[in-house]
Amino acid sequence: xxxxxxxxxxxxxxxxxxxxxxxxxxxxxxxxxxxxxxxxxxxxxxxxxxxxxxxxxxxxxxxxxxxxxxxxxxxxxxxxxxxxxxxxxxxxxxxxxxxxxxxxxxxxxxxxxxxxxxxxxxxxxxxxxxxxxxxxxxxxxxxxxxxxxxxxxxxxxxxxxxxxxxxxxxxxxxxxxxxxxxxxxxxxxxxxxxxxxxxxxxxxxxxxxxxxxxxxxxxxxxxxxxxxxxxxxxxxxxxxxxxxxxxxxxxxxxxxxxxxxxxxxxxxxxxxxxxxxxxxxxxxxxxxxxxxxxxxxxxxxxxxxxxxxxxxxxxxxxxxxxxxxxxxxxxxxxxxxxxxxxxxxxxxxxxxxxxxxxxxxxxxxxxxx
Length: 369
Ligand code: CIZ
Ligand code: SF4
What we know:
Number of strands: 15
Structural class: alpha/beta
Strand order of the largest sheet: 8-7-9-11-10
Radius of gyration: 22 Å
Helix content: 40-55%
Bound molecules: (~{Z})-2-methylbut-2-enedioic acid, iron/sulfur cluster
Number of helices: 16
């Protein structure tokens, strides 16, 4: 790093990265990757844009990526092309010497923001005023802040992803009678329904209302409390989109993510995480037709990688994760240049207060996974 009179100069800046042509940007990213070599690990979530996805050393859903990050003890820098809760998870699961970097700090998750620690604590108090605390397990979808993961860890609960939600919920029911599931109501409802839990034993918890908007009797007889959260991307898929495809192509298979509403999930042939969707469509026989209800970048990649099949995006609207979209090639280049220049930007550090119990909640999940 150059310095003049103690003032740092020539720090690579983001605006400059936007001025470059695609080719030069790609060359520079590849150059830094080669120079940092084994000191660097770039992780790419399945929803990432191709312009950064192509540079990932390892790709997958949050479960696969967090398991992988936990094993890479020798990588000094982990650049996470994903969203904040994933980078936080990687920080919790890696050593204090390893640095986790999120190329754009605005890459959050609108669903994760629908549950915060104060409102979850209030809900917990309201519920446990009516039922014994040792009958309730808190479960948080991995799409949540580290403080909420810590909340679960401290109360005998754990984390789940869309890949393992059923296994995690089963584990919880083997120990206690009831669960509080947040922030995604749809993943909770779709999974519990498939496990045979009747809808009238599930209650929506609206944190904006006293007692979540429920009577004390309703709270007492509930088995599954579902937080009033949802993914704005997946809620755009509608039952009529499924009907429309079925009418046009009677042989089509409809596969959707469990963050879609129950009405969409119930009309679909298959439901599962991004990894499940990719695996299923990739393994399907040539000539088959698929309508896929999940994020657009993933579906476009699936289309391109499966030219022997017909792959359609389930909605006529553009359902793109606007926060995943934040990580673009200029941000990736900028964060890599800053690693090389020794002036790291956007390092994600989970506060010490949350780290211990959040790790307990994640480890419980990883042991089961
Ligand atoms: O678990 C993940 O990574 C998310 C958020 C979705 C999925 O199904 O991969
Ligand atoms: Fe969050 Fe939805 Fe984006 Fe997934 S697709 S990261 S749940 S906003």
